[in-house]
Design goal:
20 helices; 4-stranded antiparallel β-sheet; 735 residues; 10-stranded mixed β-sheet; elongated; alpha+beta
């Protein structure tokens, strides 16, 4: 029992619910344990996937540090926050003042295959007489097990048949540290210049205590002397030794509230929040598109945005081609062939009408060949990203593009998501090649043999009925992606709060500390584990109708609503109107000038939750087993099955068995009703009784949600404080 034992669970469970430093009980709820870091199976990742994992870790860690460090910025009356209070010491630079992600060699990327665990906390209370016992180590508990029996009651006053149980309450702190209960406290000793553990004794001299648990609030429990029944204090209190160590000599009465821990059941959600992220894993496919997101590739990203969303592109001149090929040995032949074609065109085209009729036909053929050669070389140079067209993007788009990494978290970056959507089209949505007789993507209005009715004569009827329903739902397309590849990884945890700031805790905002998982031994070195899970499950792809979304956005009369020039898509306006979105979506505006971009994101997000709710109802899948991915500039989203167990084709079965019925149900008025009624409407039209989802399913932490963007419920989202109801998207279509 003195050594950590090993358990096996599903990979997703090991990377989240049973990740290192989480508390749990086994089936039956008997005995609390804490998970310990373990080295999982080695995993082979493509270079691009590995780079994205570290890029996301760096982004989330830096954003966490900045938010926590400046939690009290601008309030000189509050104590200053120190960098070690914000993130793990390993996430600080050598001066311990700034965030810095350790080198890749300090991490061990692995597939979660098992997890070690030990019993914790090692504190016990007698159900009969209330006597309390604690143990520092498992070995100490092992030696004393024979005394934790009914015949060995340690109560000095009244002997009883002791019935010992593990105390299911611990003390937790926003530093990420936890503490088992004991009759005493941690303190900072100025004399010894270190944190010391002080055990209390009763005035009668006794060191034996009972735990008084008669109060309904666990924070009001207290220790009392087993000999004279005198309370040790009005209620038990504990200090966080990590924060005491960080503050050191600066510890004073004004900072006492910062070190106080909070009593909580180890099963409470506040006891542990795993830090994880995910992204679409294109592996080695579509890398030519994805490389445009790298630093120094702004010109190529502008080129993509211009072509994708209809911005004006200036024509390429011969001088542009020569300048692009200048000094590049791989372009010598291309440039020579291009100039030869140009010279032929200049020589022949002005004289074409002067040739005899028979010769004119031959010369026209040669002229067409020269034009084709010229275009072929231009296309090839652009494909190789040697030649970039000159684009004239609006200032708002250029500004957002240049500052996208500071403005947007990766999962909310509209430019990254636009690239990812284009890559998804290249690798899935537009691929007609069949594998084992099945296409990677099947639109529900163009069914393949696998999704078509058994009676093939009814296929056209089903497709036409589906098209009618999609039109009523305002959807341009909806279909099944057979393998939606995702990479999910977890690397750390926090306690008390899942975000960097614990708001107004005892009259002060507290920095919540981001902790890495404790290191493991791997190849004779100590490294921090990062648990990586790759999956490729079925997903539903949905894209809204552009003209309807534009009409709906215009009806909202947002002060920053944009206009589109000829040939521009709606995404062109959205990229310029995009608003900052941090990983935690904190400080979202609630004003009388609601941004159009947040309204658009709320529409897509709320529509995604509406679909997830119905997918769960009609497929039997739990809501927690679903996830979402949103592409705002392309007016699209994906709802996918989240899991690493065998994909049993739940979503394809859903469509075959009840696809049209599900779409019909989504159109019904009951689809967006809420049991909370007017209270939910007044608060923005989103609550757990209607469109909110488990945190594991929601990409945005249940923010930017409202039923009012779908149906006219007599209110508006929380972001809109103008005080007037809005028209829902589905109601606008019905009118």
């Amino acid at each position: 029992m003195a050594k950590a034992k090993t358990m096996n669970r599903s990979r997703n469970q090991l990377a989240t619910a049973y990740a290192p430093e989480s508390f749990f009980t086994f089936e039956g709820g008997m005995g609390a344990c804490i998970a310990r870091s373990s080295a999982g199976e080695s995993i082979q990742l493509s270079e691009s996937t590995m780079d994205l994992v570290f890029e996301r870790m760096n982004e989330l860690g830096r954003a966490w540090f900045d938010a926590a460090f400046f939690a009290r910025d601008g309030d000189p009356a509050k104590p200053r926050i120190l960098p070690p209070q914000c993130v793990d010491q390993a996430l600080l630079d050598p001066t311990r003042t700034e965030f810095q992600l350790p080198g890749q060699d300090r991490f061990y990327l692995c597939r979660p295959s098992h997890m070690e665990y030990t019993p914790a906390p090692l504190t016990f209370v007698c159900r009969t007489c209330g006597m309390f016992r604690e143990y520092e180590r498992l070995a100490d508990l092992d030696k004393d097990l024979e005394n934790l029996t009914p015949g060995h009651c340690p109560n000095p006053k009244i002997k009883a048949q002791c019935d010992w149980e593990q105390l299911d309450v611990i003390f937790v702190h926003w530093s990420g540290h936890w503490e088992a209960a004991f009759p005493g406290q941690w303190h900072w000793s100025d004399r010894d210049a270190k944190v010391v553990k002080r055990y209390d004794s009763c005035v009668c001299g006794s060191f034996q205590f009972k735990l008084n648990r008669r109060s309904a609030g666990i924070g009001d429990w207290f220790f009392e002397c087993a000999a004279c029944d005198k309370p040790l204090s009005p209620k038990w209190l504990q200090n966080d030794r990590d924060t005491l160590r960080i503050l050191g000599a600066a510890m004073g009465p004004d900072r006492l509230t910062e070190v106080r821990m909070q009593a909580a059941p180890y099963r409470a959600s506040s006891a542990y929040y795993v830090k994880q992220d995910l992204f679409i894993d294109f592996k080695d496919g579509s890398q030519q598109l994805l490389t445009r997101l790298r630093p120094g590739r702004v010109a190529e990203l502008k080129d993509f945005v211009a072509k994708q969303y209809g911005f004006a592109v200036q024509p390429i001149t011969d001088q542009d081609v020569q300048k692009a090929c200048e000094g590049k040995s791989e372009c010598v032949k291309d440039l020579a062939d291009y100039l030869a074609a140009v010279e032929h065109i200049r020589a022949v085209e002005p004289q074409l009408e002067t040739f005899p009729e028979l010769a004119r036909a031959a010369m026209k053929g040669l002229l067409d060949l020269a034009y084709n050669n010229q275009q072929r070389i231009l296309d090839d140079l652009r494909q190789r990203q040697i030649l970039l067209p000159k684009v004239d993007l609006p200032v708002s788009v250029v500004t957002n593009l240049q500052h996208r990494q500071s403005m947007f978290a990766s999962k909310f970056d509209p430019f990254r998501l636009a690239i990812e959507h284009a890559a998804l089209k290249t690798t899935r949505l537009d691929v007609e090649t069949r594998t084992n007789g099945k296409k990677p993507y099947v639109s529900f209005t163009r069914l393949d043999e696998d999704l078509a009715p058994e009676d093939k004569d009814k296929t056209d009827q089903v497709q036409n009925a589906t098209r009618t329903l999609l039109d009523k739902l305002g959807l341009e397309d909806m279909g099944l992606i057979r393998e939606f590849d995702l990479c999910r990884f977890s690397f750390g945890y926090s306690r008390m709060e899942s975000t960097p700031i614990l708001r107004d805790k005892r009259g002060m905002d507290m920095p919540v500390r981001l902790n890495l998982f404790p290191p493991v031994k791997q190849n004779d070195s100590t490294r921090f584990p990062v648990y990586v899970v790759q999956q490729g499950n079925e997903a539903l792809y949905v894209r809204l109708k552009e003209e309807l979304v534009l009409e709906w956005l215009s009806s909202l009369k947002c002060p920053d609503m944009f206009t589109l020039n000829n040939g521009e898509k709606l995404g062109a306006g959205l990229l310029g109107a995009a608003q900052p979105m941090s990983p935690f979506l904190d400080n979202l505006p609630e004003t009388a000038t609601p941004p159009a971009y947040f309204y658009l994101y709320t529409l897509l997000h709320s529509y995604s939750h509406l679909l997830m709710k119905h997918v769960s109802e009609y497929s039997g899948l739990d809501l927690g087993s679903l996830g979402e991915y949103i592409f705002p500039a392309d007016l699209a989203f994906v709802v996918y099955r989240n899991g690493t167990t065998m994909d049993l084709g739940n979503l394809s079965s859903l469509w075959r068995n009840a696809g049209p019925a599900m779409l019909t149900a989504m159109l019904g008025s009951k689809a967006t009703q809420c049991g909370t009624g007017s209270l939910c409407t007044e608060r923005g039209g989103a609550c757990p009784d209607c469109v909110m989802m488990p945190e594991t399913s929601c990409i945005a932490g249940n923010k930017l949600l409202s039923r009012s963007v779908l149906r006219s419920i007599g209110g508006a989202p929380r972001l809109d404080k103008r005080g007037t109801p809005i028209h829902g998207y589905l109601d606008m279509i019905a009118r």
